[in-house]
Specification:
mainly alpha, 3-stranded antiparallel beta sheet, 13 helices, 3 strands, 54% helix, 4% strand, globular
């Protein structure tokens, strides 16, 4: 198909909107993109369409220079580098798809470059703080006193232990199927980004917490109902990602910790602790489910004790 014909720039908005939806559907079906990713791409592309309407630019016929004007406007509006680069990624993907599918003859976004992002190191939870966090719903409090655990306590403890035991994402904990948990073997199968499955090992403390939840709390929460997911809500349905994040924030508050911490920081801490304990980078990559080793390498900056040990063992004067 030829490039978009000339005419009133506003007249192509409906067509552009239809193509955005088709592109998002292609992301979901052909690339197995998560619902979160599809939603983010759609939001960013709708923002571009709104800018094109204001600027009287044909959204499907924009030139390289006009797309640079859009990015410049984002910069003037003081959007963060991360946001600008995310919207640029959405534009690149959309225009590449338009070009490949024959809607457009050229790809004006292919040579666009965004602002260089500052690489910030992941936040790691200190060992003492992790112990306080994991004691909030535990059988014993931070002072070692035994207390009664409600079904919700047992579930929350199992979720926290699971997140720290294997570095799972919140979405992976929420989507964990009961049939994919093998406590006898000390492992679970999680569904990660791009619908990729991986087996994650579980240490004994996590297995104990998850077994107590599965045998005592889960039946009480289900109340004769059925649910395919391992972690269930008080209503007997799937424990959603928002509910897990809310539980995590509540646990931080009860532990007296910084409430800006997130469940993803448990994942960062898991990876860093493994490397600090001598794990090789490739194994950590497999456990985290990273597609590229370069993504995992950032954690090497957070494990100075491991580097010191390697230096001492390998250097002639170590």
């Amino acid at each position: 198909m030829a490039a978009e014909p000339a005419g009133d720039p506003l007249a192509v908005d409906a067509r552009a909107s239809e193509l955005v939806e088709s592109f998002c559907e292609a992301l979901r079906v052909e690339r197995n993109a998560s619902a979160h990713t599809v939603r983010a791409y759609r939001t960013d592309l709708v923002d571009y369409l709104r800018w094109a309407r204001r600027a009287r630019v044909k959204p499907l016929g924009a030139t390289h220079r006009q797309l640079r004007l859009y990015l410049a406007e984002l910069d003037r509006a003081q959007y963060s580098r991360t946001t600008v680069n995310r919207r640029l990624s959405a534009l690149r993907g959309f225009f590449r798809w338009l070009n490949v599918t024959g809607v457009l003859e050229e790809d004006p976004a292919g040579a666009l470059s965004g602002p260089r992002s500052r690489q910030s190191l992941p936040h790691v939870i200190r060992a003492a703080d992790m112990a306080r966090l994991l004691s909030v719903h535990a059988e014993r409090d931070a002072a070692g006193r035994v207390r009664a655990q409600s079904p919700a306590d047992l579930r929350n403890q199992a979720i926290l232990e699971f997140l720290y035991a294997c570095g799972a994402r919140v979405s992976e904990a929420s989507g964990l199927l009961a049939s994919h948990v093998d406590l006898a073997a000390g492992q679970a199968k999680v569904l990660g980004k791009g619908a990729k499955e991986r087996i994650v090992p579980l240490h004994d403390l996590a297995v104990a917490s998850m077994r107590a939840y599965a045998s005592e709390a889960r039946p009480a929460l289900l109340r004769d109902r059925t649910c395919e997911f391992f972690f269930v809500s008080t209503r007997g349905g799937r424990m959603g990602t928002d509910a897990i994040r809310k539980m995590f924030k509540d646990a931080l508050r009860k532990a007296g910790l910084d409430e800006s911490l997130s469940p993803h920081d448990m994942r960062h801490t898991f990876a860093t602790d493994l490397l600090d304990g001598g794990a090789d980078l490739r194994s950590v990559q497999e456990m985290l489910g990273h597609a590229s080793l370069s993504t995992t390498q950032i954690y090497t900056h957070l494990a100075p004790e491991r580097l010191k040990r390697v230096h001492a063992q390998a250097h002639p004067r170590g």
